[in-house]
Amino acid sequence: MADIFKGIEPMVYKSRISVPYHWWAGETASRFLVALRDEQKILGTRCAACNKTYLPPRKNCPLCFSASMEWMEVSNEGTVVTFTVARRQLASLPRKAPVIFAMIKLDGADTAILHYLDGVDPGRVKIGMRVKAKFSKDRGARMQDIECFVPKGE
Amino acid sequence: MDRAAIIGIGMTKVESRKLDKTFADMAFEAVRKALDDAGMTIADIDNVITTSNDFWDGRTISCMAVGDASGASDKNISCVEGDGTFGAFYGLARTLSGSYGTTLVTGHSKGSQSVSSLITNAAFDPIYNRTLGADMITACAMQSNAYMARTGTTPEQLARVSVKNHGNAMMNENAHLGMKLTVKDVLGSEMIADPLHRLDCSPVSDGCCAIIIADEKRAKKSKKKPVWIKGVGMCADAYFLGDRDLSRSESLVKAARTAYKMAGISDPGKEIDLAEVYDAFSYQELMWLEGLGICADADAGKQLEKGSFDIPGRLPVNASGGLMGGHAVIAAGLYRIAEVVRQIRGEAGAYQAKKADTGLAHGVNGLAGQSHCVWILGKDR
Questions:
Q1: What are the pLDDT digits (tens) for B77-111?
Q2: What is the ipTM metric for this complex?
Q3: What is the rounded average pLDDT of the residues B164-186?
Q4: B102-110/B47-51 β-pairing
Q5: Residue-range domain boundaries for chain A
Q6: What span, in angstroms and rounded, lies between the C-alpha atoms of A79 and A126?
Q7: Which of A8, A31, B247, B379 suits B254 as a labelling partner, its CA being 20 to 30 A distant?
């Protein structure tokens, strides 16, 4: 390394990009999060023209661009569309590896949501597996009000 | 469409950690090389497009910090956030507008200076997804599982992509991760996120690439024979991963279709001689080849096993080593364009394809290949 600098001491400036930020959740996400916190209900929005129910809920239909969406409660049970098991302790993981991430299509929804899958051996997770939401006891109107999904029947 | 061509390319060596060069140093080196390649001076450049990402750069309005080093003083300079191919798309549009005879396009990043897992986690929606802690690797691992389940593509076939591209990279002086590997090496490497092993993942590297795009009039004055832009296409999929069928890439299909139509290509598998595609992860090379229509759906793994995509094969893919050989995020797609230019000019040395009249370059941005940009380049006007 020394040769590339021809005798100059290499300097490194350590810093971080750290800026406080508040995301106003907006009307649609607020309603979804409050229902999760207060009623343990999972709400999507449905576009009548496309006959499609979106989860997370959308204010406007991304397909036909319509603003006419209606609220729908979807089931807290669904199917694993795909998954991964994070084995390495990646910097983004807020919990100890292994962490199972899954895309879950809840019954009544046409799109899948991202969440954790727990209560199953990482080696036994399968696409098509039936799972059920486990709600958190400590709810704060956030996605973690669903603590995780677990195999149905457990 | 009016004609435009690529008349100059400049690449820094892609390295795991460029301790001796700042962003501006890299930009200067790449631009200097591109100008020399085109036989031009900075005075011949009419406008500049830089491509960068503020998180990867560690500063806001990151593009402006490399303007001086890109020779943009007193010139119209603009920036694209995304892959280098997207910056080049804008550069091409500016050239074709008739306002600029030449456009310099750069793309740079230094993955070594930050933490890619945290940066790519921040690409997720902050309300619904981000705090769960997924990142690019975990998103792509889910896509890989979906793709493999639907198509029957095997872990061994994925590993062969890694073996091929790391092997090719040994012949490319600009790559930093050339390695002679076996399928067993790949499958035996650390499992980061099922089904992706460490050697299924490209590295996160440092580098800068520059290209010069010219209209027909200016292209005729270039030092070397121009490489003509025959077609381009760009398309994006839904932002939320769960809105998409992750096992397919609808946006790539559409981007490719647009580019082929412009280039007059009806059978891409036969009419394209070589391709440089965005192999950030091993499965992506196969999935993108299918999306590009270079081979049939669910057939890329089998074609790969037959050697179709090797340098002596029917259609060499990532002869340069691709991203597996070195992945400077943001710049990576621009490197793909520059590598196809090299091939068409016959300048690729040890990894030269035997036939290189028409080449395809491909760039990606967003989680699990959300958006794609496809370039068809050709020897003849």
A1: 999 999 999 999 999 999 999 999 999 999 999 99
A2: 0.96
A3: 98
A4: parallel
A5: 25-151
A6: 10
A7: B379
Which pLDDT does position A9 carry in this prediction?
A: 84
Task: Out of A1, A25, A92, name the one closest to residue B135 (CB).
Answer: A92
pTM beyond cutoff 0.90: yes
Q: In 3D, which of A107, A142, A123 has the Cα closest to residue A25?
A: A142
Say if residues B288 and B250 touch (Cβ distance below 8 Å). Answer: no
Whether B131 and chain A come into contact, CB under 8 Å, resolves to yes
Across the interface, of B135, B145, B146, the residue whose CB is closest to A90 is: B135
**Per the omega criterion (within 30 degrees of 0), is the bond before A20 cis?**
no
Q: Is A152 on the interface with B (CB under 8 A)?
A: no
| Residues in chain A closer than 8 A to B117 (CB atoms) | 90-92
Q: Is B127 left (phi over 0), alpha (psi -120 to 50) or beta?
A: alpha
- CA dist., res. B199 & res. B281, Å (int): 9
Q: Hey, what CATH class is B4-115+204-219 in?
A: alpha beta
Q: Burial-class residue A94 by CB neighbours within 10 Å (0-12, 13-18, 19+).
A: exposed
Q: In chain A, whose CA is at the least distance from the CA of B131?
A: A94
Q: Per-residue pLDDT tens for B111-169?
A: 999 999 999 999 999 999 999 999 999 999 999 999 999 999 999 999 999 999 999 99
Question: Which residues of chain A are within 8 Å of residue B243 when distances are taken between CB atoms?
Answer: 54, 62, 111
Shortest Cα–Cα distance, A94 to chain B (Å)? 6
Q: Under an 8 A CB cutoff, do A5 and B133 touch?
A: no
